[in-house]
What does this fold into?
Amino acid sequence: MVRWLLAKYLWPQSLAWIGLAVITYHFFTPSLARFASLGADDVALLWLRNTILMTVVIGGQHWWLHIRKAQGTEFKYETRWLATDRKSFLFNNQTRDNMFYTLVSGGGIAALYEAIMFRLYATQSIPQLTSLWAIAVMTFVVFWFESVHFYLNHRLLHVDPIYRWAHALHHRNVNTGPWSGISMHPLEHVLYLSLPFLFLLVPGSPFIATFCLVYLLISPSPSHSGFDRFKIGKSATLHGGDYFHNLHHRYFEVNYGMLLLPLDKWFGTFHDGSQEAHEQMKNRRRCSTETGNTAQLGTGQLAS
It folds into this structure.
């Protein structure tokens, strides 16, 4: 388990997100003093920074995998490519639809949340860590906080009518690409990007607020890339997509969380792609349908 945590979960992607957040915070984020008097221009600056960051990182993955098609369909979960003429997507195009919701709604709400946290830190209104070591430890703890946070809000999003109102928009992406990662309804972005507000109660820092949002904005792009591995050179490969979450996009009612914590195991929604797990999922659906039919029958008898 320790080897998996260090060699697969943290290396290289999770450490890359921390490094990207360090660069973003120290070189491309206005000074904290600016946010002592919060204005719309402050939020706009953060939104512009988010847009450039996502265009470079997510757009770069999309260009390499889906435009240049540098590795063809090797390691791709599905042989189909992204939809280019489908009315269910905005502009009848999956990529343009995904980019719109990612950059406008996702980037905008993330900028607003980060600006609010900066305002609270600038005015010393919430507890703040000052030790570099404490900030470093809390940065790694964020991964566990996010595992619980993501599972809980994801389960909520699968409850009607919230699913029909909001989360169904994300699930139009059965065959996913890098821009599908946070292509969500604004209501879902409000929930999904709310992780930094945990630090209203738990001591954190302005950097941790930035890290939370950089992680939430960028990390879903490789996991939704549609490719299990990325080819580097002729023979080397790098871990890419998240097969665990890809199964969620395929079957909807499994794998609500992340592999870091076994929440899906504990709550009976785990699917590892095996035939055994698939049969268990079908049995759950069958039992759910039978329970629903029994309830409807009972209601009908009472009415009669």
About this structure: Residues 17-241 form one domain. Residues 294-304 have pLDDT under 50 and may be disordered. Strands lie at 229-232, 236-239. The first helix runs from residue 2 to 27.
